Structures are given as C-alpha cells and as structure tokens.
Amino acid sequence: MIFSRKKEELLEPYSTEQCGLCNTTKRRNFIQGDFVFKLTGKCTSCNQGQMMITKIYGVVK
Fold first, then answer.
1. Strands 39-42 and 11-19, bridge-based pairing
2. Spatial CA neighbour of 58 closest among 29, 35, 34
3. Closest Cα partner for 57 from 34, 40, 41?
C-alpha cells in the first residue's frame, strides 16, 4: 500500500502562512490552536497584508 506508515514513525507538524496581499509564504512550527484560514497577524514583508494559515501538514522526523 502506498500510504502505509510504520507505527514508529513520528510526524513533525508544520503550518504554512500566506499573505493575502503580496502572497509571501512562510513555514513555521504548528502551534496548538492553529487551523486553516486563521489570521495570524501582519505580514512582515509588505507590512500591509494579513498572514493566514493555508496549510497544516506533517513531515516524518
């Protein structure tokens, strides 16, 4: 099966944020309470747009 995983594998969760104005994308560690479409603050690149969580995923450690 393609999607089978070993029981010992642990996933490191990440959240991806994207600015609605300049489309800057940043990956950060998942924080309890994160959800898709959550506004997380002002963009540090353009200082005008809002950062929003667009993806939550896990990477095998």
1. unpaired
2. 29
3. 34
pLDDT of 1 > 60? The answer is no
Q: Is the pTM of this model over 0.85?
A: no
Q: Cα separation of 44 and 56, whole Å? A: 20
- Closest C-alpha to 38, from 12, 57, 15: 15
Which sequence spans correspond to the domains of the chain?
11-60
Q: In the block, which residue shows the tokens 């089978």? A: 4
Cα 15 to Cα 5: distance, rounded to the nearest angstrom:
21
- Tally: H helices and E strands in the chain: 0, 4
In which residue are the tokens 């898709």 written?
A: 36
